[in-house]
Design goal:
An eight-stranded mixed β-sheet has the order 1-9-8-5-4-2-3-14, with helices on both faces. Strands 10-12-15-13 form a four-stranded antiparallel β-sheet. The chain contains 13 helices and 15 strands. The chain has helices at residues 17-26, 35-48, 59-69, 90-94, 113-126, 145-154, 206-216, 239-250, 252-270, 298-301, 305-314, 346-353, 365-378, and strands at 52-56, 77-81, 98-102, 132-136, 159-162, 170-171, 174-175, 182-186, 199-203, 276-278, 285-286, 292-296, 320-321, 336-338, 354-357. The model has no long low-confidence stretch (mean pLDDT 95). It starts with 16 loop residues before the first helix and ends in a 9-residue tail after the last helix.
Length: 387
Amino acid sequence: MAQERIFLSPPHMSGREQLYIDEAFDTNWIAPLGPNVDAFEREIAEYTGSLGAAALSSGTAAIHIALRLLDIGPGDRVFCSSFTFIASANPVLYVGAEPVFIDSEPETWNMSVDALTKAFEDADREGRLPKAVIVVHLYGQSARMKEILALCNRYEVPVIEDAAESLGSTYEGKASGTFGKFGIYSFNGNKIITTSGGGMIVSDDEEALSRARFLATQARDQAPHYQHSVMGYNYRLSNLLAGVGRAQLQVLEERVEARRAVFENYRAAFGELKGIEFMPELPSTRPNRWLTAFTLDEEEAGVNISDLLAALAADNIEARPLWKPLHLQPVFAGSRFYPHSGTLCVSERLFQSGICLPSGSSLSAEQQQRVIDCIWRSLGKVANPAR
């Protein structure tokens, strides 16, 4: 009999979601907008310390709207993290702009300040500074925002924080996603909290957020008839799903603690083994540890990532390689890319040697032990000290 499937990052309901859904049904607020949307925006703003928020249909939509708010279009450049999911950069293509990809650094696996500096220097010489920089907080770990913001401010280039994976994380005591001009969150089914599908844009620029809502609601002008002077989108979050998000937000801190505990259990099991290096934790930050990730040195460990993934799959355990860098993706072929230092490409090395393990906040101790035991067997270890 096949063992129960262990998923990478499944949704984790609190039990309170149905209360908000029932209320929406009872009051007939089934239309796309309603009280739950307004309240969810207010509650996310309060949680993150932002002045405002706009609830949208996805994190991707939120990045797209942020680019529109910055008037980015054909002929413009946008600097983007390369080591991330493609949704971070696809909206650059939506607006007809040119993505320029920036490598990661070993200390955070996020955007390399050295590579970003070189990209800015070249762009300045060429007279083609970017219109924005999209910084990703990978797997819940914040990028070096102090250094990145100092660099971007020097060139007067706004920052969009792709915090899709890092809601609940902090950098020097401040919420991830609140350092740049705009911050982006995702509530996809695999995120730390979910609305099934949804996203949010946060900012201290409330006028810009008002325009974000306008653009996301088909850009309908104030008129008694349907009139549209600019192109808009059908990007607003539904009132039903916003209700789910409100209940999820109430348990966010519990979800962060649960995922950090999962990470600590993995580190206790494998942290002393040669050839395994866990994703670093930058000092003065609290990553939400959305996914536990590590790299594997094949020579030292005696096994490679493909072997490990195959062994986990055979045990009905879902695991994934780390993100394939965007500068290697066929859709971005020919795009400019800046490595971390000289010829050292950190993101490519991480992709070739890294793995994400099941990390859900609902992962039981027995399920995690199954994952640990499978990895120990794959490494050829006789005894598992975590037992």
